[in-house]
Each structure stands twice: as structure tokens, then as C-alpha cells.
Design goal:
The complex is a heterodimer. Chain A has helices at 36-45, 196-204, 275-279, 294-313, 324-334, and strands at residues 3-8, 14-16, 54-57, 63-66, 70-76, 82-85, 89-92, 98-101, 105-108, 117-121, 155-157, 168-170, 183-187, 207-213, 217-221, 236-237, 242-244, 252-254, 261-262, 266-270, 286-287, 289-291, 316-318. Chain A is an alpha+beta fold. In chain A, strand 14 (207-213) and strand 15 (217-221) form a beta hairpin. An eight-stranded mixed sheet of chain B has the order 12-9-10-7-6-13-5-14. Helices cover 24% and strands 30% of the residues of chain B. Chain B contains five helices and 14 strands. Chain B has two domains: 5-78, Gyrase A, domain 2, CATH 3.30.1360; 87-239, Cyclophilin, CATH 2.40.100.10. By secondary structure, chain B is α+β, with helices and mostly antiparallel strands. The model of chain B has no long low-confidence stretch (mean pLDDT 95). Classes of the chains: A alpha+beta, B alpha+beta. The interface between A and B is large, with 50 and 49 residues.
Amino acid sequence: MSGFRVIQAGFAPTLQDFGRPAFQNRGVPVSGALDPVSLRIGNALVGNDGGTAAIEFRLVGPTLEVTAESIRVALTGTRAELIVEASERVTLPSYQSVMLRRGQRLSLAPVSDSGVAYLCVEGGFDLPAVFDSLSTYGRSRIGGYHGRALKDGDELPLRLSAVEERGELRLERPVYLDETGPMRVVLGPQRDYFSDASTAAFFDAEYTISREADRMGMRLEGPALEHTRGYNITSDGIVTGAIQVPGNGMPIILLADHQTTGGYPKIGTVISADIPRLGRMKPGDRLSFTEIDVEGAEDARRAQEKAIRKLLDALTPAAAWLDEAALYRENLISGVVQVSDSL
Amino acid sequence: MSEPVFLPAGDTALVVQFGEAVDAAVNRRVRHLAAKLRESGAKGIVDIVPTIRSLMVHYDPLETSAGALRGAISDLLHHEHGEEDAYRLWSIPVCYEGDCAPDLENVAREMKLDTGEVVRRHAAEPLEVFMMGFLPGFPYLGLLPEEFDIPRLFEPRVKVPARSISVAVRQTTVYTVECPGGWHLIGQTPVEFFDPERAEPILVAAGDRIRFEPVSVGEYERIRKAVEADDYKPVSEEIVP
């Protein structure tokens, strides 16, 4: 078994794919990538199916050593660079596939432009699926690597022990990283638990993402919302993007690891086309909301899907990175390079 | 009975709400619609999640739409009749003594009954699994007799032991793993309701019924050892009304 050795885990990276959406009826959270668009693009760059599990990390990425003969990776979700320590230290852009060999180390420049990023690996990880998914769900210790975030010293097995040499791919302009504007929200299912004035205030206000933001949910700081019918409801279903409002009136947007049911009123739901962008936001970022109806939200999702396919069709060949210093050394050893050439 | 209403939950889920309060008859309608919708094979549905008083239908907006689903569900509701669905009936051993039942005396005091009577009433009738939620494999069961209408703990526990049986607001739950919790702990079962190592990790589903069978501490420990040795299977039977 070979693949990666985790030299330094960084800030609790997990393995994530598209999650396990079909088991919510048994109380199993969906989990999966906070930014599924970046996951899809990263997988396309290394030749995988879009939903192959990748390493998802937040803010501080891991340092990994290649223990397989060779691997191919791509970094997405951020414009931070991939740092490779081979015979020398090189930095390579994100959104580009790179082939690495045994013994080389990779790490990441600090990720300051995004709350979440992905390291996709050709062939994916050789780990068991739980409820049809490799996604890590730490609270119930299922999926991923032994059901938990990665730690220093973990040995991550890959499906491929070596990858073929071939042309690399890149995405020249990950335009979707530049999306801005308010998050679009469909009101309900419990909009009637809030006064019209409070709902209007919600759409007027600007909120800040608090430090209490994780894969389960994002607490917002800003104007408190006022309940008109109390803040306890008989538990009902929860969908990713639901904005629940507990007793203190501070909205919490529920993300991938949210519980399947809950008993706080939900004023609205962030639409699915805006979930990847929301997933990339981080504590301290500011956001606001705007109203949209269900049909508009469905149209937005279809338009987004078109745009993603366009990006996937726009992958272009990239120059392969070669460890030139190592090649040079090999050449010296084999005597191909003449001393006179360097004079 | 009132007409169900459709409530929006973004562009990937739709709520069919049958009521706002906890009510066994409402919950049966929810589960009945869940079964009918599952059978219908309607396109683009990702998951169908019955909750205590409403149904959440998760869908893929690239495959279907809320409008199409509302139409399909309305047709099913139109043909709704009061037939009773088949269900699985489980017998689950529970120890209501000693360390297994840290809150039993407080609950008995609150209910103005002695502890034996609380246990007798808790285990008297099979209870229905109204919904699965909170954690994988975690069932909410009801309805207990009215005297069990007691509020949750004022101060939730940071750690509830795995397999605890808890009560509050006329419902009972089984904690699948050690986790925080705000309900009163009146017993513990040796049976695992969630075991990721098992072929079927999750034991029960919404619509199942559970009869809790009181056992002594000694019996609890014997069954627990058998469970750990992979030598015990909880019993269930299929009931067709």
C-alpha cells in the first residue's frame, strides 16, 4: 500500500467527495465537499470522475510526502500555489495537474483567498466507502481515513501506485472564484415565524461570518432576527443552505455536515448555486442576502451547471513540470553532459 | 384532518407539512406518503425524509423541479386513504437500573410516580419510530403516555453514554453513540443501534415499532458481552395489519 505520508496535517484536513445524500432518512448527514465545483474541476484536471474523494482543507494545508512510485495531483479552490520540495523547492500554480515522484514533498502556500481548497489525486484513495461515500464525517467516525481528520504520520493509500506520463492540464481562468454579490435565498419553510420587519431587516443587513464556522454550519454576526412565534418548532427536515435562527436571533447557515433534522425555525435557504461560493467563505468575511423564488433558484442552478461544463471543456494542455535539477544530476552521473558544454 | 401544505426549502428540497405539533396520526400520514412516493419512482428524487410532522423530499434540480414534484405528490395525496402500513416490530432489551438509569429517580419524582411504575409505563406498549435524526441511526419514538410530557434537562449533558434510553416531551430516543444530549436518561440497552462495522450499520427505520423489554443488570451485562462477541442479534418480526 502506498500513496502519501502526512508529514504535517495542517488544520484538520478531511477526505470529501459528493457525500451520502441518500441516507438522510436514516439520520445520516450528507457531508461531502463544501465547494463541490472546485472538487469537480480538480478531479477533471487529474482525469478522475468529478465526485472522486479528494483532500479538503481549510486555511492551512497539509505537507505530504509521496510514497507511491508516482502520482498526479491538482490543487483547486484557491489561487495559492502548490509548493514542491524535490531537488529544489519550486512553486507551481493551482488549477494545473502535476506529476510527482516518490520522495518528493508537497505543501501549500497559506490559503488566504478561500475558506476551503482541494487536493485531487489521480485514481483517488484506496479506502472503504461508508454509505456509498468516502466523505469523512467525524462526529460519527465514518468515512475518510478511519472516520477522522488527517493527522501527522498517517499513511494514505492510493488506488494507483504509479501514473502514466502524459500531457498535463490546466484551467487558465477559474472565473468562478471571482463571483460576488449577495447570497440568493428562498424564504421558508418557517418564514411565518418572523415578522415582515424582521425579514426585511435580514435582507437589508450585512453579516459577518463568526469564528464559529465549521463543516456543520456558519454562525453569522449582525442584526438579531426577531421571532414572532417562539424559537422552538417540532423538528423537521434540514437541507444544506438552510438558515436556522435559534433563540438569540443570530442566523446559522447549515453546511455539508448538518444534522438531518432540527428544531429551530428556518427563515430561508441559500440556493444550491450559491452553496459552493458560501463554502469558500471564511471567518471574518462579510455577506448579505437577496430574495429569489424557487423557480428562479432552479434556473440559476441550471445556468451554473452550464457554466461549469464550459469550464470543464476549457481545460488546456499545460507544460509538464520536470525536476530539472534531478535530471541534470542524473545526466552528470551518466556522463551525457560534457564538461565542455558548461564552459 | 387538515390538508397538508407545501413549504419551500430552497431549490433542492420541498416540505410537505401535515401539522405543526407532535401527533401519532399526523406522523402516520407523513410515513404513508413517504412510502407511496418511494414506490412511485418519481424522477429526480435524491432522498425522502419523514419527520415527526412533515415530509422532506430532497431532489436534484437538474433532473426535476419543485413544480413537477408538487404535482406528483398532490396526485398521491388525492388517493390517500387510511390504510395501515406494514411494519417491523423489534424487541429491545433495556436495563432500567443502577448506572444504566441516572435520571430515573428524578423523572419519577417529576411524574409523581414510583420508579417501577415509570418503567412499567415506558415498556408497556410498542412505540413507533416517528423519525430518524440528530445522528446516524438515531430514532425518535412515541407517543408515550401523557405523564411523560416533561421538559428537557435545564442544563444539557456534555456526554451521554452510548446506548442510553432517554425521555422528554412524551417521546423517547436511543443515543447511538456517546454525544452531548438534553434528555433524561432512564435506561440503557446492550444493543447497538448504529455500528459502522456491521453489514447493516443502522438498526431501525422510521415506521418501525419497538417494544422495550426490561432486563436486570446481570442480563444486560450478559447480552452486552454477546453483542461485543458478535453473538447476539436483536429480534424483529414483520407485522402486516
